Amino acid sequence: MAEAHQAVAFQFTITPEGIDLHLSYQALSQIYLSGLRSWKKRISRIKNRIIKGVYPASPSSWLFVVIAILATMYMQSDPSMGLIAKIREHLPLSLSLSAQGQTVLSVLLFSTLLWLSLILALRFCLKLLLSYHRWMFELHGRISTKTKVWATLVRLLSSRKPLLYSYQTSLPHLPVPSIKDTLERYLESVKPLLDVDGFQRMTRLAAEFEKSLGNRLQKYLKLKALWATNYVSDWWEEYVYLRSRSPIMVNSNYYGMDFLYVTPTSTQAARAGNTITALFLYRRKVNREELNPSLRSFIPLCAAQCERMFNTTRTPGEETDVLQHWQDSEFVAVYHRGRYFRLWVYRAGRLLSPREIQYQIQRILDDPSPPSPGEDKLGALTAGNRTPWAQMRKQFFSSGVNKRSLDCIEKAAFFVTLDDQEEGMMGENPSVNLDRYAKSLLHGKCYDRWFDKSFSVVVYKNGKNGLNAEHSWADAPIVAHLWEFTLATDAFHLGYTADGNCKGEIEHSLPPPQRLSWDIPLLCQQLYTEAALADDVDCHVFPFREFGKGRIKKMKLSPDSFVQLALQLAYYRDRGTFCLTYEASMTRLFREGRTETVRSSSNESCAFVLALEAGELLRKAAEKHQNLYRLAMTGSGIDRHLFCLYVVSKYLGVESPFLKEVLSEPWRLSTSQTPVQQMELFDLVNHPEFISLGGGFGPVADDGYGVSYIIMGEEMINFHVSCKHSCTETDSHKFGSQISQAMMDLMTLLNPDFKEATKANPDKQS
Fold first, then answer.
1. pLDDT tens for residues 407-432?
2. Prediction pTM value
3. Which of 39, 158, 190, 204 is the most buried if burial means most Cβ atoms within 10 Å?
């Protein structure tokens, strides 16, 4: 109760002599400093709104325009061609200004209008320039004059350092491809996967769709594209993610891992202290809009997904979930040994030092109190089917102590799990332990993560860490950017003392973390079961060390295309057939863009696999893949267009056999590359051991594979493979071996001397 008394700013008692008032100056000081921080944030937001509102101009350019107009007026010249005089005539008569004052006011009004017009013109020009995407299709070293002029103009208009959201209103809208182009590309993508009769049937269905229903649906879609910021993203978020009633654990959420070879400290509380601090430093950068929104230093990407990174949770509904976001949160929710805590990380408007957060985390670790009935496995509700969780939430968590505690979790900046297990590549069997580490991050014990939070950080007993991210609010590159910053800041910026503790001073008067209270009925506890889904997941993580992007680029091939072709070869060897392959590509060159599908299994890739000995077919297949990837990035993909046409058909209540079949096709090979976006934060030359493992996800199809990979540095590619034990035809370890062998075979095909070099240096093999 001592903390409760300290939190009261004043107390008073009524005595016979009158009212006795006691002020707590310490509490008043805390209130003042917290309020000061809030006002500073408000002022910063207003300032940023003004700066990005006038981008690519600057607020100071208004003064330049005013001075220029006044100077020309002083020289007896009227640049407004009579408009200033017109404005003066229409000024209210009540203005008690001299003739000179009225002229100055008219000049100010005209200058402001001229300035705003120039801003709109510049923004329109920038939008037109950013609609040009031919630069993506030009070969490296063979840049056309048109593209060089375009790049110069973009740099000129973007010469001012932009804020995170400065480009949002200048980004072009995602274009709606023509029905004919989409259908042609679709048929081309499925041709190698169907027999002659199957392909003729799909060709007939596509032709019927184009002639009849397709054009009608396309008109509605174009109307939406004119009205909405992005014709795909809101429907994609709602129908693919939020309306799904199946568990988001394994099926939707994904994970990110720690460094492969090193753990900065083995002290759990210290690692948690630095990790939490680094995440709040990143949030500060997001709030201040200090992150660079550009690709290749001058090509802007949409940053809309960053808005809901922190203070966000997915709230279950009986028919559809809802994403809830709060402007600010000064605490995190922490889970340890079945108990939930609220940990305040700000005090008097000041972010606690890493050492202070470590001190608070250690208090949680040392807390001997047992969990209340049903508390330990409460998180399992977020792991199960969405409708039962929504019903339980409405019935048992909409009032009283349960609502107050649930609010603390949902309104937290993010969720933290202090895990009792030790994970990482360690022990006598590091490969098996690495696989267990992946499964732990993907689903844990099914109840010791809060899968609804935008992301949950896991810190293990031996100091290893990782995160689990909910998918509806953002895609993996956004979370990867956050996690790169967190790992780099933790290891290279914040650092640790010689004994493995966080740096900084401790204010020992900090109130302890607040234990959350619950009253959970038995009916609710009976829903705590999703272990079967987790047990069915088969994960395999392995670093491929034989070569990396350095050697691939020497062969004048795209590293991503090389890996995708290796995956095609590996799958064919594993299953004896080809399959529909999903590779995620981003569409953030457009406003509110998210992802598009690259159908990596093409005529060229299948022909190459069937004739492995022909090196030219490999290059042709790689070039085809690169072209498919570029088309997806520039708004000419297949699947998002067909998905939106299907949604329109459902709204209109009409059936399309073609769309129904297309949308039901299984993705038996779902792949994604985790991009390395901030390589400058990692000094791999002097510290090559600080290699990130990347992250992964569960299989999309019950009889398929999920494959994620990260190309680290010049000499390593880390793979994450997942499938299901319940499918007798899939095995993550076997498929991992097939991937490694396919990578080696492709490199040997391009460079026959590579095989001999590998034999001469067996230590490099994994």
1. 999 999 999 999 999 998 887 788 89
2. 0.91
3. 158
